[in-house]
Specification:
Helices cover 45% and strands 13% of the residues. The protein is of the alpha/beta class and 394 residues long. Strand 5, helix 8 and strand 6 form a beta-alpha-beta unit. The longest helix has 36 residues.
């Protein structure tokens, strides 16, 4: 390969960071937390690259191992196209379609799944329509509804942090005339709890047949629960289901921004005018390589689940309840308000999740490397005292 094109992993990441700088950090915060997260960042002020690099990053559900070598190589090889418009794009749409067992006409690319969620909102909330979903969940959908002068109907979680499908069915049917679509984050963010395949079918079978349902599967790669299943088969059946996926999590391409929707052809055509289509050449090649490297994803899944379970067990033994999760993050009950705790962790060099009202006494923690989680546990024990099991339940 031409020496000038043989960009090393370090030079690639370093050069990209220098190019994006503070803007990249802001973009990630927006993708993860919307306006609230950006406001919090503004209040803290910009963070230098050196300070950011030194932090343990457990706040945005990223892949702390980074992209695999296969992905880095593909992106490095694609640098030769950065000055072109009509470049070879690794046939990314076809690769995704084959990977997920659908047709290219069922795929819509977006700058991260965040753009996909916004496109769905813009498409289906016109005329003051509403979205219905649970709270807390991934709030970007509800925030975008406000931006397009729409509204959201937010249903509470059950006592064990599940999405109440029976309640969602009842509320959807009662408000059907005013709804643009139903939103189901599965597994749910921030709780990490899944909706079973049986419950998803129950929902789809008992709401109006023409009601669009957006199912956000950003974390489906991590699920072990055999009761869970992807909802892509409903797209193949022709139901008005939109499945959102992302390369920002298990693949480790959060800052590169690529996500996609899988939906019936007519829905994709309806959404396409609202899509920016601003996907860069490097991530297209990296994403195609990622889908052809399932072993790398399997390794990240194994390490993530191993570290999540070990950390949850240590917190439980220390007297703090952890919500069982099927993702690369978990929530731990603190017994006090989470906002000042976030600042305490930051002072110890650890970035953790933002508040998720109304669960204001639960802290969301992303799962990182073994070293990351050991640092988190050390800091946790410095901030919180050990508790008895009785105190934890209380």
């Amino acid at each position: 390969m031409n020496q000038r094109l043989a960009v090393s992993r370090r030079r690639f990441v370093g050069g990209l960071a220098a190019t994006l700088g503070y803007v990249g950090t802001r973009a990630d915060l927006w993708a993860q937390g919307g306006p609230a997260a950006v406001a919090a960042q503004r209040a803290r002020g910009p963070m230098s690259a050196a300070a950011y690099d030194a932090m343990v990053k457990l706040g945005n559900n990223e892949n702390n191992w980074g992209p695999p070598q296969s992905v880095m190589t593909a992106m490095n090889d694609a640098w030769k196209y950065v000055g072109r418009y009509g470049y070879p794009d690794a046939n990314i749409v076809q690769v995704i379609a084959e990977h997920d067992g659908v047709k290219p006409e069922n795929i819509l690319l977006g700058a991260g799944s965040g753009e996909i969620l916004d496109v769905v909102g813009t498409t289906f909330l016109q005329g003051g329509k509403k979205v219905i979903g649970v709270d807390p969940s991934y709030g970007s959908v509800y925030q975008h509804a406000t931006l397009v002068k729409a509204d959201a109907i937010k249903l509470p979680l059950t006592a064990d942090y599940r999405q109440d499908i029976g309640q969602m069915i009842e509320a959807t049917n009662r408000n059907a005339r005013d709804l643009g679509f139903v939103y189901l984050c599965n597994p749910n963010n921030p709780t990490g709890v899944v909706v079973s395949a049986k419950e998803v079918r129950q929902l789809l079978d008992h709401i109006p047949k023409d009601m669009p349902v957006l199912i956000d599967e950003a974390y489906h790669h991590y699920v072990e629960d055999p009761a869970y299943a992807t909802s892509i088969p409903y797209v193949k059946e022709g139901r008005p289901v939109i499945v959102a996926r992302t390369f920002s999590k298990i693949v480790g391409l959060a800052a590169m921004r690529l996500g996609y929707a899988i939906a019936p052809k007519e829905i994709v055509q309806r959404m396409r005018p609202y899509s920016m289509g601003s996907i860069n050449v490097l991530v297209k090649h990296g994403a195609a390589a990622a889908l052809n490297d399932p072993a790398a994803q399997a390794k990240v899944k194994q390490l993530t689940i191993q570290n999540r379970k070990a950390t949850a067990a240590a917190l439980t033994a220390y007297g703090y309840d952890v919500i069982p999760s099927e993702t690369n993050f978990f929530m731990v009950g603190l017994g006090r308000d989470v906002q000042p705790v976030i600042a305490e962790f930051r002072e110890k060099g650890i970035l953790v999740g933002r508040p998720f009202p109304p669960m204001t006494q639960h802290l969301r923690v992303s799962v990182g490397t073994e070293d990351d989680m050991q640092k988190f546990l050390t800091a946790f024990k410095q901030i919180f005292p050990a508790r008895t099991s009785t105190a934890a339940r209380g």
